[in-house]
Design goal:
The structure is a homodimer. The first copy, chain A, has one domain: HUPs (Rossmann fold). The first copy, chain A, is an alpha/beta fold. In chain A, β1, α1 and β2 form a beta-alpha-beta unit.
């Protein structure tokens, strides 16, 4: 029987690739998404499609509302930055940073992993895109893993030793796209945009759209999401 | 202006005492509770009363449903243990343990602390009552604090250095009760029971009721909650 793993699936390009990698590694994948009051809730429709198409065993969406705390352009009434040069994104932490979001996501993953007796959690963090994001750095992930291995009944009883897998952490977007393409990921059903239009089309102007476009350009591949919506790269 | 702190308030005896301690320490207290699918949701009514009576600045309840994952007598269709001798509770982890609950709670506290620019989080964990609870041990708290100080924009920018305060971690229940009484905590408005009756009265048979009763007995004080409901200690 394959080992169970919890895979964080946002509906974006990165986490779809991670799910494909975890499946290729032989894991039974339990896909986990969050409805947290995000502006771009369209991504959850994509998460469902991704989980299904890439053979997740099951897909669970946990609901809570981070708008209670605010503090981010993704969860508060703060404008999403548009038309920024990609180089600029590498400096500082953008307003789309959501306080402690990855810590919250990984905590729920830990809870589910414990009830599944799973030792493996996959997350698509990347330390290159936004070098300033604190909760995408290897040292943060290592600290979370150390904490997790003191946190649960399963870890204390020695039944499981939790490992947080971050297969994309040091890959460029172009390499992520090439890896996903090899594994058969259909990026047409993913969504990266922070500010999707009502029909689910990407805005093509936010940081996340810009990084995605740069990645496809560098990979020398046309983004099938653009084809799907009849759009052209800017 | 007093420093802001986030205080986890469950509505129980311990966290009420912690809130009083944080207030006595001069903090502006932001009380945080969770509706997580717990069987004993009555505790949230108590949390609101405690936050108000002990002068919290505000009280926020975050909603999510851990019944999705199950795995605990508090969130799944598993019976709450009754009539166990207190000595027995010190061995192993009871079925009322909720997978990764404190990690999830502290993660939300971290998120709120970041948006408040708070450096201080208070939690009423205790390493004596259930010596087997993994996420009540000092080494777990230290590991969470280390992770938290790598997790947020505020910590990375050096604006805050998060500290997790656990003022009760090594106190007996009797000492906690005496300390709370000194600080004017009204334990009649708290609820510790895992399986409260429809009118909010404690069952007096679960582990949590038993520990509470032992604490009041050792402190030489009558539990005002019993008086409120016209009950007698068993």
């Amino acid at each position: 029987m394959p080992d169970p793993a919890v895979v964080l699936v946002s509906g974006g390009l990165d986490s779809a690739t991670v799910l494909a990698i975890a499946r290729a590694g032989g894991f039974e994948c339990n896909a986990l998404s969050f409805r947290y009051g995000q502006r771009h809730v369209h991504e959850l429709t994509c998460a469902r499609a991704v989980a299904q198409q890439l053979g997740a065993q099951r897909h669970v969406v946990v609901d809570f509302d981070l708008r209670t705390f605010g503090g981010s352009a993704l969860t508060a009434d703060i404008e999403v930055p548009k038309d920024r040069p990609v180089d600029e994104m590498a400096h500082g932490i953008p307003s789309t940073y959501v306080p402690a979001r990855n810590t919250i996501f990984l905590s729920f993953a830990l809870a589910w992993a414990e009830t599944l007796d799973a030792q493996d959690v996959f997350i698509g963090v990347n330390a290159l895109d936004y070098s300033g994001y604190p909760d995408c750095r290897p040292e943060y992930i290592a600290a979370f893993e150390a904490m997790a291995n003191l946190a649960t009944r399963a870890s204390v009883e020695g039944r499981t030793r939790l490992r947080i897998h971050t297969p994309l952490i040091s890959l460029t977007k172009a390499r992520i796209i090439r890896r996903g393409a090899e594994l058969g990921v259909d990026y047409a059903i993913t969504s990266s945009c922070y500010d999707t239009l009502p029909d689910g089309a990407p805005c093509l102007r936010c940081d996340s759209c810009a990084l995605r476009a740069k990645g496809f350009a560098e990979a020398g591949v046309v983004d099938p999401l653009l084809v799907r919506y009849g759009l052209h790269a800017r």
